[in-house]
Each structure stands twice: as C-alpha cells, then as structure tokens.
Specification:
The protein is α/β, with parallel strands linked by helices. The chain has a single domain, classed as Alpha-Beta Barrel (TIM Barrel). About 30% of the residues lie in helices and about 20% in strands. The protein contains nine helices and eleven strands. The strands form two sheets. Strands 8-7-4-3-2-1-11-10-9 form a nine-stranded parallel beta sheet. α6 packs parallel to α7 and α8 crosses α9. The chain starts with a strand and ends with a helix.
C-alpha cells in the first residue's frame, strides 16, 4: 500500500474552493479530506496533547482503510539530552492515541535543524520508543535535519531497531534515502506556489516511480544514500508520502495528483 496525504486538515488557504468546496463546514473538513487522500499527518499533537475522545472522533470521521500518522510531542525531541526524554515520551503515549484503533499509523519524531547526531545519546532515545501500545504494534519514523546525521552509525542504529529514517525532499534539510525499516516514510517539502500542483508534471511522475519502487522493495536511483552499497533486503513495504510545508496551499492538489498517478 502506498498512502499519500498532507499535514493536518485545518488551513485557511484550503477553503473556499481551493480544496474544500465553498462554504464547506469547518467541522466536516476531516471528513472531506480523508475521502480524497489516503493518509494525514496529525501535526497538532506536536504542540499539545488531546483527549482520547478527540482521537476517537477523528477515527470515526474517516473511512475504513484510512490511516493517520501522528507527529510526536516537541517536548520529547526538542531537548539537549534525548536520553532524558522518557517521562515526556510516556506522557505523549498516555494521552490516548490508541483510540485511533486500526487507523493509527506511524509516529513521526521530528528534530530541530540544530540537533546534531550523537550516537551515545540518540541510541538510548530510540530505545525509549515503545514497540506496542495497548496490544497494538507501533511503528516509528525519525526526521532529522542536521548534516551530521549522514553517518553510517545512525543508519545502522535505526535499522537495528526497525525505525524509519524519514526521507525529506527539501531545499533546507538533508534528504537521507536509506531504507531502515519495514515501511518507508517520506515528506515532500519543496512544492512551488507558482505550480498548481506544487510539483511539476515531470516531478510528480518521478515521485510516483520512486514510491512504487519503495513499495516493491527496490532502492530507487537518484536519491542520496549514506550507505549506498548496503541496501536492506528486497521485500514489499508500506509507503507513506506526505505533501507538506513548502507551498502548503498546494499540498492537497499535489497529493491528489500523485494519487492519480499511482
């Protein structure tokens, strides 16, 4: 399965016919978005906590087969010593995200651009991430934004723990394409406002080909790898691709254009 979506679903520039129909009720925006996309990255959880009833409401507003990615709390990742994040990690998982049920997808742990790779600290942080929640297996992805993470030790420690290194197509941050888990997580962050679909026709064709390659277990050419000669076993993988940041107003059109190609 290749799932394609956006970050969040409440964004003023998406209203009044840009993505949502004119005068579409704000209370039904998730209902609308989830029937035109196959995944959404919940960004609000990065900034604050929610009640189990809220997660259950989001679950019930979306169709069968839809899957959310959940962005972990910034209080877990924006700290000097990551190994000390245990209490914050526990608090994040105690808020009730398991109420998403079968629609709970990967957890994204995003790090600031100033956070450098420190193997002695990052490894213990990865060990804090729980493997299951209320009997449901959890999947984790990490988005790192400093060049120091182009380190074989980082790739190896992620593979050892089945943690995905989120690939970012970004003009600002490194795009590490090494596959390190049994799923792939990609964030396409370089959309252009002057293009109706954010990415050009040729670029969308290329990303569709890359996503299909990831899903088939191949190592797509033309991406940046830390360990290009150490590809993981070739096996089918679930793929998550999010059109996010960049020209955010173009994200829904970009996601729908990629879904149409797939």
């Amino acid at each position: 399965m290749i799932r394609v979506g956006i970050g969040g679903w409440t964004f003023e520039p998406w209203r009044d016919g840009v993505f949502f129909p004119p005068k579409w009720p704000k209370s039904r925006e998730l209902e609308y978005a989830s029937r035109r996309l196959t995944s959404i990255e919940i960004n609000g959880t990065y900034y604050s906590g929610f009640k189990p009833e809220t997660f259950a409401k989001w679950r019930d507003e979306t169709p069968d087969g839809f899957v959310f990615a959940v962005k972990a709390s910034r209080f877990c990742t924006n700290r000097k010593v990551l190994a000390d994040a245990g209490e914050s990690v526990a608090r994040f998982f105690a808020q009730g995200i398991e109420a998403l049920g079968p629609k709970l997808g990967p957890i994204l742990w995003q790090f600031m651009a100033t956070k450098r790779f420190d193997a002695a600290d990052f490894g213990p942080f990865l060990d804090l991430l729980p493997r299951e929640l209320s009997g449901r297996a959890l999947r984790h992805a990490v988005e790192v934004r400093h060049e120091s993470f182009r380190d074989p030790a980082f790739i190896e420690m992620a593979r050892a723990r089945n943690v995905a290194v989120a690939f970012a197509d970004s003009a600002k941050y490194p795009g590490i394409a090494d596959v390190t888990a049994d799923f792939v997580y990609a964030r396409l962050e370089d959309a252009k406002a002057e293009i109706a679909t954010g990415y050009s026709e040729a670029e969308l064709d290329r990303w569709a080909e890359i996503a299909l390659g990831w899903a088939a277990g191949r190592v797509p050419a033309g991406l940046d790898y830390v360990l290009p000669d150490q590809a993981p076993p070739a096996r089918p993988r679930e793929v998550f691709v999010f059109m996010i940041n960049g020209a955010k107003e173009r994200a829904p059109a970009a996601a729908q254009a990629l879904i149409a190609r797939l």
